[in-house]
């Protein structure tokens, strides 16, 4: 979105005779962006596995079995589930998402951290340095996750065309307004832009419950 600071900078560059008209135009554009809905994707705890860990958990040469396509192109929920074991407790039937990745990454909520007894940091996907540890148990074996457990930073996936429509850039942090009775505004939402992405606002179950949001409901960028 066009920030108030940027709007002021643009207005200063306009000739005095054009400032009022230019200001009105910028305000109009910002208003249009604020009315563009972004569908929500509520993300429950899940794990992305590398091929070596897939085989450790399910057997040599094992391939994940897709059961449902996800909104992000090429991504799917697999039939396979695992059990997470932490120092304090365990969580069963945690869904594996495919396809196989270069590095395993387990994503949980803060509520899950209390159940497991782990201290997973809030991180962007792929930022695993000094993250939490856990044990995964599958149908054929187990694997230890060393610094591979995070709580995912809330974010928006969008294509380059979407980024132009919403006037944002890859890596930018924005505010997102949730509809409904709660009227909650999420800050520090990371914009992730790629030709491979479909428009979707990703939050975990804790955040969705706090805002009264369900998958498919629209949210909106705000100043």
From TrEMBL:
It comes from the Bacteria. Its EC number is 2.3.1.222. Its main location: other. Its cofactor is Zn(2+). GO terms for biological process: 1,2-propanediol catabolic process. GO terms for cellular component: bacterial microcompartment. GO terms for molecular function: acyltransferase activity, transferring groups other than amino-acyl groups; metal ion binding. It is an enzyme of class 2 (transferase). InterPro entries: PTAC (IPR008300). NCBIfam families: PRK15070.1. Belongs to the PduL family. This is Phosphate propanoyltransferase. It comes from Photobacterium chitinilyticum.
């Amino acid at each position: 979105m066009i920030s108030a600071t940027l709007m002021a900078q643009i207005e200063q560059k306009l000739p005095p005779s054009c400032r009022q008209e230019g200001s009105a135009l910028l305000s109009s554009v910002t208003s249009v962006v604020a009315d563009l809905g972004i569908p929500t994707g509520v993300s429950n705890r899940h794990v992305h596995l590398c091929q070596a860990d897939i085989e450790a958990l399910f057997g040599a040469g094992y391939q994940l079995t897709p059961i449902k396509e996800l909104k992000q192109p090429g991504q799917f929920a697999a039939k396979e589930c695992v059990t997470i074991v932490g120092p304090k407790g365990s969580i069963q039937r945690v869904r594996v998402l495919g396809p196989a990745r270069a590095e395993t990454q387990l994503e949980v909520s803060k509520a899950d951290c209390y159940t497991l007894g782990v201290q997973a940091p809030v991180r962007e996907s792929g930022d695993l340095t000094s993250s939490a540890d856990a044990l995964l148990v599958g149908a054929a074996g187990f694997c230890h996750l060393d610094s591979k457990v995070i709580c995912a930073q809330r974010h928006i996936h969008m294509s380059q065309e979407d980024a132009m429509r919403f006037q944002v850039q890859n890596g930018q942090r924005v505010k997102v307004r949730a509809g409904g009775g709660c009227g909650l505004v999420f800050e520090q939402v990371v914009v992730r832009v790629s030709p491979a992405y479909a428009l979707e606002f990703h939050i975990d179950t804790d955040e969705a419950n706090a805002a009264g949001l369900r998958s498919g409901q629209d949210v909106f960028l705000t100043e």
